[in-house]
Write a structure and sequence with these properties.
It is built from six helices and twelve strands. By secondary structure, the chain is an alpha/beta fold. The protein folds into two domains: 5-70, Ribosomal Protein L25, Chain P; 78-236, Alpha/beta knot (3-Layer(aba) Sandwich), CATH 3.40.1280. Helix 2 links the parallel strand 6 and strand 7 (105-110).
Length: 238
């Protein structure tokens, strides 16, 4: 059986026993038919991996924490993705893959040309859905932090709260990553399917974001985001 990593939103301490939450219990008992006495790995977002032994798989699933080890898979680049909300399952895909590539935070952006418009209960439910995808992506990719998916914001809100170096992907830009100074912390702003409007690009640049060119071709939003993250990690992170 392959190794199992699960997220638990609880304090983990060597030598203690814990009851796994409903989602983890269902996955171990119903999906994996996991046997008692075998070990799995848990994490709670504190940057450590916890080796635990499953000691009960009846109606509830309990485990004993055996040891912990610092997880060193994080990139040296603290990267935030400010992603204009994409339609359909594209946003789910973007969140999953961006976390696999090492982003530290994701901010969904309500841009002018977004097809999807969220507010009220729909926004709350969608944000919770995106956070679950983020948690599972951390499990799958071997990270021991939790990447926050913030509540959707307007571009103006994002620009007013963003700290560190900002980059706005723009196919008419002139500078590439190769000509830019490596930052420790950065935010990458990506438009929706129809791209950012000229006024949005101008607003970002006026706020200190640098126009960024990835190449001579116009990329889809999901391609642009992942290509930008991958290149930034290759050049500036790890």
């Amino acid at each position: 059986m392959k190794s199992v990593r699960l997220y638990q939103n609880t304090t983990l301490k060597v030598g203690t026993k814990i009851d796994l939450d409903e989602s983890a219990t269902h996955h171990l008992i119903k999906v994996l038919r996991f046997p008692e006495g075998k070990n799995i790995t848990l994490f709670n977002g504190d940057s450590f991996d916890y080796l635990v032994k499953v000691i009960n798989t009846k109606k509830t699933c309990s485990a004993q924490v055996l040891s912990c080890e610092k997880n060193n898979r994080e990139s040296s680049l603290n990267l935030t993705l400010a992603q204009a909300i994409a339609k359909g399952e594209k946003m789910d895909f973007l969140i999953q893959k961006a976390i696999e590539l090492g982003v530290n935070r994701i901010i969904p952006v309500q841009a002018e040309r977004c097809v999807v418009r969220l507010n009220g209960t729909k926004l709350i439910k969608r944000t919770e859905h995106w956070q679950k995808i983020a948690n599972h992506a951390c499990e799958q990719s071997g990270r021991s932090v939790i990447v926050e998916v913030a509540e959707a914001k307007s571009l103006t809100e994002v620009l007013s709260e963003t700290e560190g170096n900002g980059y706005v992907l723009h196919h008419r830009a002139e500078e590439s990553l190769l000509t830019m100074k490596a930052p420790i912390k950065a935010t990458i702003l990506i438009g929706p399917e129809g791209g950012l409007s000229k006024s949005e690009i101008d607003e970002a640049i006026a706020s200190g974001f640098q126009p960024l060119l990835l190449g001579n071709r116009i990329l889809r939003t999901e391609t642009a985001s992942l290509a930008a993250i991958a290149n930034m990690q290759l050049l500036w992170g790890g």
